[in-house]
Amino acid sequence: MKQLLVLRHAKSSWKDDSLADFDRPLNKRGKMDAPRMGELLDKLNLTPDLIITSAAKRARLTAQAVADRSGFDAEVSATRALYMASSDDYVAVLNEVPDSNRLVMVVGHNPGIEDLVQYLTGRWERMPTAALAHIELDLGSWQSLDLDTAGILVNIWYPKELL
């Protein structure tokens, strides 16, 4: 059994319109929501074994804030492959995860995040900024994950609900 946490990056800033999309940081709300999601993971004993994030600044900052507050004690792995990735791209990245990792978190962007949750659970769920989905996968190996894998949506959390 593998478990997947799917997190959309926290709210980003559009204050500096000279920045490329890839380089946008978190705004004030994003800086509050990301640590809140990490605290939730710590409270629920869902600290990931591995965190893989899009290399975009807003995703990296989200992933690091979650890592810092969840008790995650390894280095967050950033990859450009998850920047504006499709659900297929997420699966390709997850197929490379060593099987010693039981609970893995991916941090990225819509629409790929929503599509991934839908493919793996059969349910379309809205994934606004900093939304977090927990999916159980009846897999022995990450290499066998594909978009036809039938997962169970254990829960979905929205930062506004945690106030």
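(ticket continues) Second input and output from the same batch:
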Amino acid sequence: TEGEWKTILSASLQTPQGRLSTHHASARRWVPWICAYTGSRPGEVTQLRSEDVYQRSDGVWMMRITPDAGTVKGFVAREVPLHEHLVEQGFPAFVADRTGPLFYDPTQKRKADEDPTNPAR
């Protein structure tokens, strides 16, 4: 509903409370807006890497959703223009300060990922 999306997007602009990792705080900040403006799935957005966000020669900012980064609907890469409001909010500047995955730390694994006897792996 309109009230729900307003609540989610407003909350994403608040300073995170508690001890969140940089990646988790960044996901809370940017993922709702990217999903709202692009129609992309959260799983596709959370696997974005710094090299997946770029500016074309005509000045349009783009993001590349690619199976090289993880699971993608239809298993086909696609390029999506970034809404000007994402640019105004500073998403390209956020990306420029990072390398690799934007919203997770690949060096951090969950215990379930490390336990070979865990059927949830």
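Agent notes: The chain has a mean pLDDT of 87. The first strand starts at residue 53 and ends at 55. Closing as not reproducible unless the customer responds.
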